[in-house]
Amino acid sequence: MSETLIIVGDRPFHAAGSAQSAGLNVVTLGADEVLKHIHTTPGDGTVLLTGEMENRPELVAAIASVRKLRGSGAEAIRKVRDPEVLPSLPPFAGLKFCKTLPRVGPFRRIVRRVTGNAGLGRVYLIKPANSYGGRRIRPWSRRSKVGASEYVQEAVTGTPMSAIFRSDGWSCVLLGVTEQLVGDEKLGAEPGFASWYGYVGSIGPVSLTTQDRAALSHLGVVLTQRCDLRGVFGVDLIRDRKGRWWPLEVNPRWPASAVVLEQAGGGALLSERGGRAVLPDSAVPQHGLVWSDGRAVMVTGGDRRACYAALVEAFAASIPKRVTVAMPKLEAPTLPSEPEVVRVQGEVLEAPRNKKHLPPPG
């Protein structure tokens, strides 16, 4: 009998296809309904966390009290989601860590008011501590207010990436890297400033040098051992023009871009054997992923440019066509040529043409 996988999160369909490919029976539950309905699922089912669950460790702890987790527990999530965990990691060749400010002191505020966002030689972003998918991230300016549940992180110029790992609390394996597509209106991002950093899709696998693999593998092992990470998880990074990797945040749950690695030859990452790593050292055919109306749109291209073009075309074709309904033409009312006559208690009054200015009764 097949094992049951209970997928919990804001977008459980991210992992549903992967679970079915692994031969698992799938039950999907939204985060707000999981405690109400989880008792109706098979008692031997395991729980896989998806989007937004990294921000709800209390709920994860409650789930873990009644079902086994296939991934990190609540305490590990709390540790690794601390904005200061990445800057505290030891230096390693090929890795750079963003300066992160859990709070903004008065001196730095004064400098910002004088110099703007270029003060002290750095540009910063305001990031919500309880967000995911790049939502509500915005540049920090001299007039910005940082909320109690927000922090400030140094901005880095480069290509957004996602490194995907599988760990057991001590050892960790780098499964592959994908490019993240963010803020792209051609792929469904809402127009305007609020969606500049919003995740819309992925392309991969990204080819890696020996130094790349060493740096990212080191990152995964250190995070795993410091925070007791388990299962498949992702790390959002920037790769700058010098080829250095800047980790931004850790997502201790199933990452949406994992399906790209599966399509690229990684096999079923949720199967008993766990699939395999996809770490090309040269250009290989690219696989693309974008989400449209709650379903995955997958394409393949010979290179990155061809794959992106195919993604844009496939996404446009997936959007339901708008139906234009012709409204009947309304004719303007005909005004009387003579003033209207109103009889009030035997008196004859001429009513003004503008009914908004009728005299009060009485």
Describe the structure using short key phrases.
362 residues; alpha+beta; 7-stranded antiparallel β-sheet; 4-stranded parallel β-sheet; 17 strands; globular
Q: How many beta-strand elements?
A: 17
Rounded to an integer in angstroms, the radius of gyration calculated over CA atoms is 28 Å
* Overall pLDDT score: 84
In DSSP terms (H or I, runs of 4 or more residues), the helix count works out at 8
Helical fraction: 10-25%
Strand-residue proportion: 25-35%
The neighbouring-strand order within the major sheet is: 13-12-9-10-11-14-15
Secondary-structure element order, N to C: EHEHEHEHEHEEEEEEHEEHEEHEE
Major beta-sheet overview: 7 strands, antiparallel
Structural class: alpha+beta
Blueprint (SSEs and pairs):
Elements: E1 4-8, H1 13-21, E2 25-29, H2 34-37, E3 46-49, H3 57-64, E4 68-69, H4 74-80, E5 100-101, H5 106-115, E6 124-128, E7 138-139, E8 150-154, E9 159-168, E10 172-182, E11 199-204, H6 210-227, E12 230-239, E13 245-251, H7 258-266, E14 286-292, E15 295-301, H8 304-318, E16 340-344, E17 347-351
Helix pairs in contact: 3-4
Describe the structure in your own words.
Strand 1 (4-8), helix 1 (13-21) and strand 2 form a beta-alpha-beta unit. The protein is built from eight helices and 17 strands. Helix 3 (57-64) packs antiparallel against helix 4 (74-80). A seven-stranded antiparallel beta sheet has the order 13-12-9-10-11-14-15. The model is unreliable at 109-120, 322-327, 339-344 and 346-362 (pLDDT under 50). By secondary structure, the protein is of the alpha+beta class. The N and C termini lie far apart (85 Å).
